[in-house]
Amino acid sequence: MENPARVVVALPSTGQVHQAAMTSVREMMANTRSAAEVTFWWENAQPHDRCRNRLLTRFRDDPTWTHLLFVDTDVVVSDDAIDRLLAHDVPIACAPVPILHRRYGPNGPQAGVTVGTNIMVFDDPKLRGQRVQPDQAGVGYRYMDPDDMPDEPFVCDATGLGLCLIRRDVVEKLTPPWCVFENLSNDEFVGEDINFMRKVRLAGFDILVDPSVTCDHYKRLDLTHLDLLFSEQPPFSPWPARQTPRELTGVIVAVCVPPTGWVDVRLIDVLNAWENNYHHRIRIEYVFADSVRSAMMELAPLVAMSEQRYENVLVLGSDVVPHESTLGLLASVDAPVVSGLSRRFHDGQIRWSFWSRSPETGQLISPQNINLPAIDSPFDVSAIDPACALMKRETFALVDDALDGLTHSANADEQFVLRWCGLISKHLGRRPVQVPLTIERVAEVGLFGLLRLKVALKRKMREESGVVAAV
């Protein structure tokens, strides 16, 4: 092979890399058939533009390598990504990376967040496809609607560097520093990747996008309010706005902390507000637990030994951020267990956080879809996920019985919850109550599936009404 490609896979990092991303990079490097040699570099400098510049400097100074492939540490690549990008034989070839970005309103203002890709075009349609000029530093970009992307490779005005192959002649022609985080005079900014692409276009290079090269992008998302990505008016129940929070008696607020020890700072704000509002009526306890079962095991003896004035326990999972009004609204419903409403991953699917018996099969099911605006009052369920639940102290006397004989199987947490809620119904004479009060619950989610869902929803709306909603 004449002038074979020798590729550096470069990861600018913050000291961590997502396991799925690193596994995919290793598979991509092992499976390439087009590159004569592939190596892996990473850089942990701060800030992020410095990471990229150090990697680019190292690449420039080592003529062994013909191409540098930037891969972000939370991007999962396909095993043929190197080969498919190399096949274009162009200065820059990239893939559209799914991202979260601000949604644009009818007249240009940004409103809310949606899911899209990192492919960008100029705000002004007349400038699209043109070379940006040196005196046009304030020219703005907007994210390209995935529906507008051609099926074949095309040229864009700018893109992120999440998955981007750069040929040596590009790096050598540009003057370092290649990547600079720019603060503009109007309180806006240009990220280091768009700054790089601006210089690339000034130097006369095109930016090729291959939409057939797909990748995933892991981000922490609020599963409960996932509808916000697809609609400006997500569904809510009318119940919380009508309900009057109740004055509290003693409550132990048990905050589950993951083994890392990190807690969302917004949760600390809520806890501080509760302490200020309720004073001596609440007691905050931090429970280090990596599962529902271990949290309840830790809490049971603590509750048994606590003063009798602490009649209730509010359990907050490590992935939950409640609203300041949550505690009073849960306390306004009189039941042994009252739970806020959230979404979570269950068997690989996003489902709501309660179980009810199917009228057809009698099986306990956790629903994927509910008509939340039509639910205007609390409702009894067979079991709740205690990620944000207010419980009477006597429910903890049933924890040992629910744990008895339970093996450490893959679904042991779920089995514990179902057993425990069943014992509550049997011994306390009342089933758990689910209130239609949504609680933020965060999880790591691959954005590629959500992007496909958005595109499918828009296609369906277009077919049904001929009008495309802003999703």
Overall description:
This protein has 471 residues and is an alpha+beta fold. It folds into 2 domains: 5-221, Spore Coat Polysaccharide Biosynthesis Protein SpsA, Chain A; 225-438, Spore Coat Polysaccharide Biosynthesis Protein SpsA, Chain A. The chain is 27% helix and 30% strand. The protein contains 12 helices and 30 strands. The strands form 8 sheets. Strands 2-1-3-12-5-15-10 form a 7-stranded mixed sheet. It is elongated and about 80 Å long. The chain starts with a strand and ends in a 6-residue tail after the last helix. The mean pLDDT is 91.
The CATH architecture of the largest domain is Alpha-Beta Complex
Percent in strands? 25-35%
Distance between the first and last residues' Cα: 48 Å
Oligomer: single chain
Radius of gyration: 26 Å
The number of E-state strands comes to 30
Mean pLDDT, all residues: 91
- The computed structural class is alpha+beta
Shape from CA axes?
elongated
